[in-house]
TrEMBL record:
The keyword Transferase does not apply. This is Dyp-type peroxidase. Keywords: Iron, Metal-binding, Oxidoreductase, Peroxidase. GO terms for molecular function: peroxidase activity. Belongs to the DyP-type peroxidase family. The keyword rRNA-binding does not apply.
Length: 444
């Protein structure tokens, strides 16, 4: 790994949505567009460059409110980006998420054949995302962005997903969300784990050195530099099945909460088992300066406190050498809740769609998102768990259970059903502000 250095990120050219953690609480919306006329699509890019918020100031005049614009490979082609340029982008991006479904574990109910239209198709060209601390400010942000796409006959809005924080500030399974955020050199935004050395800018922003000293930049440089790859996924959560699983495997309500913590690696308040192994600590869970500052290898290598196969240890093994070079697989992750909560205590599904819109930001689709999804979330070899998958988000087939390390005898839980189903998604490119202008000025 390369040594720590000082890097001058061109923050005035980087979209704020690439680097900033979302506000808490929050409201968000995702809008998807199809470009039917190249000239209008380019006009959309020109207008978007004036609407998108840059990362130059982590606290903007708009507060924790911003608009981001991302483009798929089909979208870049629809705008007239030459084939020679498209071929310089990551090959996973060129293939698209639907084509990568088997590798990602998007099979069975989660397969692209069952995705929500038009997600995963060649009609998805541009994704506009707006984030704000509340609905009124979100609507203001959308209203400011509307002139960018309004009255362009050749640009059609084809899908929308609204998201919002639940009153509990948790996701639908009941866990506090938005806990972890990596530090990026040159961003000016602190990470949530004070024990983690800031990662190289090139792990998240194209055109800068990454952890192994390389520089990835799609060509021409004006298009690639200061951009990022963004992965968007709509994930449906079967809350009733998750609650039934906890109830059926627990001896009493207190044991049910312990199982929930062992499966996730955190208590529902956000307090990590690593810092509060015996009981929940809501004050710790609510403290952004303490709740994510811990490691595993020194104090808990065997996973007696935080199981090696639990969700947060799989998603970020931190200092665990068994998982390979963890810093090569770090991403910026953001989740936004959609759909109403299932009423407390209800154990049967009510047929309502609810879940998370997830966004993953990075500069290396293959060794970041795809590696984590295929090797850490849907395989157990790195964690000594055979073919076991992530207990929360893994692509389970109802055969493999979950094991909790324990002395003198480990605890084995029943086979896991699939709690999370992919409803769609896409690999996108998050252009810099100058790249948006360049796309707007393209000529045939």
């Amino acid at each position: 790994m390369s040594e720590p250095t000082q890097v001058a990120l061109e923050l005035d050219d980087v979209q704020r949505g690439a680097l900033s953690p979302r506000p808490t609480p929050y409201a968000a919306t995702y809008l998807v567009f199809r470009v039917d006329d190249r000239a209008d699509g380019r006009e959309l890019m020109r207008r978007a460059s004036a609407v998108v918020t840059s990362a130059v100031d982590p606290v903007s005049p708009l507060g924790d409110t911003w608009v981001s614009v991302a483009v798929t490979c089909y979208g870049l082609a629809a705008l007239g980006v030459p084939r020679g340029s498209l071929d310089t982008f990551a090959w996973e991006f060129r293939q698209g998420m639907a084509a990568r479904a088997t590798a990602l574990g998007d099979v069975g109910e989660s397969s692209p054949a069952n995705w929500e239209a038009p997600l995963g198709t060649s009609d998805v060209h541009v994704v506009l995302a707006a984030v704000a601390p509340d609905v009124p400010r979100l609507e203001e942000a959308v209203d400011r962005a509307r002139p960018a796409y309004d009255r362009l006959a050749g640009v059609t809005a084809i899908w929308r997903q609204d998201c919002y924080a639940l009153p509990t500030e948790t996701e639908h399974f009941g866990y506090r969300d938005g806990v972890s955020h990596p530090a990026v050199e040159g961003s000016g935004i602190p990470g949530s784990n004070q024990l983690e050395v800031p990662l190289k800018a090139g792990e998240f922003v194209l055109g800068y050195r990454d952890e192994i000293g390389g520089i990835q930049t799609p060509q021409p440089e004006v298009l690639g530099r200061n951009g990022s790859y963004a992965v968007f996924r709509k994930l449906h959560q079967d809350v009733a099945a998750f609650r039934r699983y906890l109830r059926d495997n627990a001896t009493d309500p207190d044991d049910e909460e312990l199982l929930a913590a062992k499966i996730m690696g955190r208590w529902r308040s956000g307090a990590p088992l690593a810092l509060s192994p015996q009981h929940d600590d809501p004050a710790l869970g609510a403290d952004p300066h303490r709740r994510n500052t811990f490691l595993y290898e020194r104090d808990d290598p065997a996973g007696f406190i935080t199981p090696g196969g639990c969700h947060i240890r799989r998603a970020n093994p931190r200092d665990a050498s068994v998982a390979g070079e963890v810093r090569l697989h770090r991403m910026i992750r953001r989740g936004a809740v959609y759909g109403p909560p299932l009423p407390e205590g209800v154990l049967e599904d009510d047929g309502t769609d609810r879940g998370l819109m997830f966004a993953f930001i990075g500069a290396h689709l293959g060794r970041q998102f795809e590696f984590v999804q295929s090797q850490w979330m849907n395989d157990g070899v790195f964690f000594g768990s055979g073919d076991a998958k992530d207990p929360v988000t893994g692509s389970h087939d109802g055969v493999t259970g979950f094991t909790i390390p324990r002395r003198p005898v480990r605890r084995r839980l029943a086979a896991l059903p699939r709690f999370v189903v992919t409803r769609g998604g896409e690999y996108c490119f998050l252009p810099s502000l100058s790249a948006l202008r360049w796309l707007g000025d393209l000529r045939d």
